[in-house]
Amino acid sequence: MSLSSVAAQIPLRPSEYFDLMVKPFGIIPNQWKWQPGETWLSTWNIVMAGTVGYLALVFGGRYLMDSSQSRPIKNRTIDSIHNAFLSLFSALLLVLYIEELYPVIKVHGFFPSLCHPDAWSPRIVYMHYLFYLSKWYEFLDTIFLVLKKKPLQFLHVYHHAMTMCLMFTQIEGMNVVSWGPTVLNLAVHVVMYYYYFLASRGKRVWWKKYITIIQITQFVLDVAITHYFFYHIYIAPAFGLPYLDYCQGTTSAALFGCALIWSYLVLFIQFFNKTYKPQCNGGGGDAGRLEKKTSAGSSISVGTEKSK
Question: Any coiled-coil ranges, and where (predicted)?
């Protein structure tokens, strides 16, 4: 069974409509290529400058807001549009990934598809690129916090700064396995930003704690996926075990991604314990103070703590 024959069996192809949307911009996803130095935001110099600029803007802006004694700047309409856009964008990209990956998984199986070159098509690389660009856009989450004079947690700033770098390394290193964590992250973001949208409209949502639980679950799965890659690249060949010999990706990108995901997992577990354990034990403690609204209308406990 070929990929084309499986793809032809899909009754609804959202990619056809998406292609019509991007065609006026001269973009053909099936022919798209990542070209370092030519593709927008595609060099390490730009990534490093963007990260430093983000941190300078965040901490410089916080200093100016505090020293000026100015009132918090709030706009519920902008918050709502921002969160609705990211939820809908994540949903669209998730659907496009599923459509493109379904034939690959159908032909090769799920686990082999985490390594197979067929899962690194021009269209998937383009979707990776769009996801990477969204990490730049999500810097606005922190800017909104600064303008609203809301507390900044290390986890929030660290996660936003490093996730953009992470996605860049995965595209640059052509790591096929990265589609697994990316798809999981998009699924989480659909729900997470929908919650932020509801909160920005003043609606109280009882299930916000479960967003953090879902994020932690995602990171556990991410760790398993990245270690699956390492098994086939290093462990199995070294010990004479069965393995796939076509896992695509660079060692540096894989190591960086694995280390970063582990750090996310540890930090999110610590965050969850600090925020919700006092509540589970019947006390308020720090949790009550952490439930203050963030710039996007969400609470710090889950607010803008993006997964990936």
Answer: none
